Every structure is written in structure tokens, then in C-alpha cells.
Amino acid sequence: MFERYNKVQRAVLETTLRIINQKELQATSMSLIAKESKVSTGSIYHYFQSKEDIINELYKAIVTFTGDVVMKDIDANQPVQARFRRVWENIIGVSMKHPEGFQFIEQYSFSPYIYEESKLEAYKVGWCNPVEKLYSEAIEQKLFIDMEPKLLVQMHYGSIVYLVKADLQKYIELTEDAVQHVITSAWKSVLRS
Length: 193
Hints:
Layout: H1 7-23, H2 30-37, H3 41-47, H4 51-71, H5 80-97, H6 99-108, H7 116-125, H8 128-140, H9 149-168, H10 176-189
Protein name: TetR/AcrR family transcriptional regulator
Keywords: DNA-binding
Pfam family, one: TetR_HI_0893_C
């Protein structure tokens, strides 16, 4: 997830993500990050001004990585339904393959720790904006009901989030068949009658 960062930044981001998922954000201090990452506090401050800067960089890194994975292999020449299916397969796949990133985003996306400019930047580089465009295209083609694309995407994402969380907690098992049924149900739920 953090391949585009140098060794020190990567150690700080990976450690911060692990600590936050284990202990919560408020219990994550700069001294704990330094101790656990084995990076001196001075080196951390060379790259990040504060704990909030680390949190925001972590947020942007995860959203950018997730966006790249979700939009991989999406061919604009394919029919809308094929792209829809691939996007949701990718979202579920990356969420389950990288549960620590998924949990962080789900828990802290609306946190006051995340700066507005970080949220806006993430919206541009993440998967939400391109998926909304896909839904807009489906609406223009009279495939989907006439509703705000952002609302439709978030409605589907909310269902996916619950299912992934339930799988991660071993409450349900999201098998490949189950994933395909969920995506088919999501598609059918917004089709014009």
C-alpha cells in the first residue's frame, strides 16, 4: 500500500496504521509511533509535522492505493454492466485483501482528524469519482433509475461495507458465489423497471 514512499515514511505509515487499528487513534502518540517503527522522533518530524499530518497522509495513501486497485482493468469500451461488476469485485477484493486499510478508512473517513483538503484530494484520486461517472453513464443510458449517482454509489457501498465487516468478523463468509450474488443484487436494485 505504501510502495511510493521512502523507507522511513513507509515504516511510519505502516506502524501508525497497525497501532491505530489495535489501540484507536487517541491512544496513538508520536512517541509510540517512533518506538514501534524504530524511527527516531526527529526523522519522523523531518517528514511529518504532526500526528495529524501522519494520519492525513495515511488516509490519502490508502485511498489512492484502493482507487488504483479498484479502477485496474476497467475498460471504458466494455458495457456498463461488465464495468459495474468489475468495479464491485475489485472493491470487495481490495477490502478483504487489505483489511487494515479498509478498517482505517471506514472508521476515520468522517473524523475531524482528516482535513477537508485531504478528503477532497482523496475523492479525486480514489474510486468514488470514477464510479459515480459510471453510474451517471448508466443513468444516461436509461439503465438505472434517475437518482443522484453519488447517492446510488454510497447506498451500494454501505451494503458492501457491512458485508465485508461481517466477513472479517467471521459472522458470514463472503465466498466467490456470494460476492457474485451481492453484485447482481446491487445491479438489479437500481435498474429501471
